[in-house]
Amino acid sequence: MAFDKKLLDIIACPVCKGKLEYNKEKQQLICKVDRLAYAINDGIPVLLENKAEPLQSEA
User: Fold this and answer.
1) How far, in Å, CA of 40 to CA of 29, rounded?
2) Between β-strands 53-54 and 44-45, what pairing exists: parallel, antiparallel or unpaired?
3) Model pTM score
4) What's the DSSP call for residue 18?
5) β strands within 1-59, DSSP E
6) pLDDT in tens, 5-40
């Protein structure tokens, strides 16, 4: 099942309540403010802080 990008209009980061960005290649939702990546499993975003992965610094 594919992720419905329309969800980006209504969902938010569970930590800061900010906007999330969709990374199609990695199937993740990214919060740039908190530098966290939330997985998308079978088209469903897993918006749990304890399941989020920290973003790697881009040097």
Assistant:
1) 7
2) unpaired
3) 0.88
4) -
5) 21-23, 28-31, 36-41, 44-45, 53-54
6) 899 999 999 999 999 999 999 999 999 999 999 999
